[in-house]
Amino acid sequence: MKYGIAIFPSKRVQDFANSYRKRYDSHYALIPPHITLKSAFEADEQQIDQIVQELQRIAAETAVIPLTITKFSSFYPSNTVIYLKVEPNETLTALHQKLYSGIFTDQPEFAFVPHITIGRDLSDGEYFDVYGQLKMQTVHFSETADRFHLLYQLEDGAWTVYETFRLGKENA
Amino acid sequence: MKYGIAIFPSKRVQDFANSYRKRYDSHYALIPPHITLKSAFEADEQQIDQIVQELQRIAAETAVIPLTITKFSSFYPSNTVIYLKVEPNETLTALHQKLYSGIFTDQPEFAFVPHITIGRDLSDGEYFDVYGQLKMQTVHFSETADRFHLLYQLEDGAWTVYETFRLGKENA
């Protein structure tokens, strides 16, 4: 089964992101707006039990995470993904690193650029049109994430939450 | 903010349900296949903290839940919803009751018929056509739910998971 790990920002930020995703993101219906901490990886039932325990341990030792969203940005010319930029910070980066070390033997495909995707699979023409407008727009959200989620992927590509991990809490 | 409480069945059952929901359920993109335990209710941030605590308490005292899915059924003629019937059992019914008592002062709109919706908003013609085929089909899934989820609704109608509650575990 394929799993992934993500943070959902506040409803306010999700509503803002979805107002664009609806039009520009082909994954709009598959998952709510999110910051990917660990992209899709394979695990069987036995492995996932061990991973859940490890995530509880990691969550317990991780402080709540400041999320500051400052602008629209993009991965162009690598691809035409447009995203809301989440300012990197030590806590977020350290958490990302922990999800790619220890029992997690896979390596990240890209350097960690925390972001919330709002557009993808755009043609070059669409991309320039949409991004040209968005990059002029002022964006500022500042909030705190106090949890992350382990999700699994269904056959149609949609993601279901398997478990929530609260940061720095007695729950671990 | 609007919240709801639901169980997600196994990936196997979700994949099966989605193969129909894709075509027949207008809510397909809004939430994964689920059994509603408590339908949409309003709560503010302060209330939700209290509700989360109560849900932890309820989850801790609730055993894992047998989910036996036996056939397609429908709410016709009340409406044209088609669903996978989940056999009622004491644990499931008791959990449902707890989510409508104590600090939860709202009352259920309908008698509790545990189900996984796979079609809705069908015209009468579509309904008879689809349900006529499905009701002949043999369905049997038997599994155990060990958790439920508290979700909140975004402005576009989609649901995001807020927190997971494991049944009968030390996590409460």
TrEMBL record, chains A, B:
EC number: 3.1.-.-
One term of GO molecular function: hydrolase activity, acting on ester bonds
Sorted UniProt keywords: Hydrolase
Transmembrane segments annotated in the record for this chain: none
Motif HXTX 1 mapped to chain: 34-37
Active-site residue numbers: 34, 115
Any Pfam family: 2_5_RNA_ligase2
InterPro entries: 2H_phosphoesterase_YjcG-like, Cyclic_Pdiesterase, YjcG
Signal peptide feature range: none
Motif (HXTX 2): 115-118
Similarity-based family: Belongs to the 2H phosphoesterase superfamily. YjcG family.
Name of the featured protein: Putative phosphoesterase GFC30_1199
Species annotation: Anoxybacteroides amylolyticum
Classification of source organism: Bacteria, Bacillati, Bacillota, Bacilli, Bacillales
